[in-house]
Design brief:
alpha/beta; Spore Coat Polysaccharide Biosynthesis Protein SpsA, Chain A; 9-stranded mixed beta sheet; 41% helix
């Protein structure tokens, strides 16, 4: 009897005018040692040379396209609509995977069929790819997520496509917290798991990155999820929002050190 086929992993890269970093992102996916990856790049009509970068790797992509869209969330939804994998992930066009990330994530999900999503540790890197800090990854769950205890680096998450089919797509009204909204929906249905000691990705911090420009908007969107799902004003996530408004500038300074 033949052993069961390895699951197909569909990875989406939404991209717009990130030519400086895009090739590094692409190669970090294509050099993974896992043999069954369906890689899809959805570009939003870049004008900075990104399309030329993508075309260099076109024969190794399951799909790519470049056309005006409604932003990152729209691009990710378009990518997943084309995906046929058993396991899904997205990596943004300025972030990168570390070697063996995909294979280790798949191995864990195969061995733990009850787990809906797995994530791991993540480095902060600068424009030059130099490590400047580490994401504070921690184990979380539905109850903790509702309290604002997030601690999930999106760059490292891999989740089962069955939950996308049940719970997707991403809410297009979210610009920043679409991943948090998805995590809340998934964690309400099944366990998610953090793997300590595994560093799967690198989160690039640079002058035009969304984390620098829109941290305030991200927390406002998380509060939208909180109130949408019946949350109270007198809740830890609301207190964390106001505390973060005070300490946010100090946090950005720390990760740049």
């Amino acid at each position: 009897m033949k052993p069961p086929a390895l699951p197909l992993v569909s990875i989406i890269t939404p991209s717009f005018n990130q030519a400086s970093f895009l090739e590094e992102t692409i190669t970090s996916v294509l050099t993974q040692d896992y043999p069954r990856i369906e890689y899809i790049i959805v570009d939003g009509g870049s004008t900075d040379g990104s399309v030329a970068v993508i075309q260099k790797y076109a024969d190794r992509l399951a799909y790519w396209g470049s056309a005006k869209d409604k932003g990152q969330t729209d691009a990710i939804n378009k990518g997943f609509n084309r995906a046929s994998g058993d396991i899904l992930a997205w990596i943004n066009s300025d972030d990168t995977y570390n070697p063996k990330a995909v294979g280790e994530a798949v191995k864990f999900l195969i061995e733990h069929p009850e787990i809906a999503m797995v994530y791991a540790d993540c480095n902060f890197i600068n424009e030059h790819g130099e490590i400047i800090g580490k994401f504070a990854s921690r184990q979380t769950d539905y109850a903790k997520l509702r309290r604002g205890y997030v601690h999930i680096p999106q760059q490292t998450m891999f989740f089962r496509s069955t939950y996308w089919k049940q719970l997707g797509p991403l809410d297009p009204s979210f610009y920043f917290a679409m991943d948090y909204d998805l995590w809340v929906r998934i964690a309400k249905q099944a366990p998610i798991q953090y793997l300590s000691g595994k560093t799967w990705a690198n989160f690039r911090i640079h002058t035009s990155s969304k984390t620098n420009v829109n941290d305030e908007r991200g927390w406002q969107e998380m509060l939208r999820v909180h109130y949408r799902d019946g949350g109270s004003f007198f809740a830890p996530i609301v207190a964390k929002y106001y505390l973060r408004k005070i300490i946010g500038p100090l946090w950005k300074w720390r990760i740049r050190k």
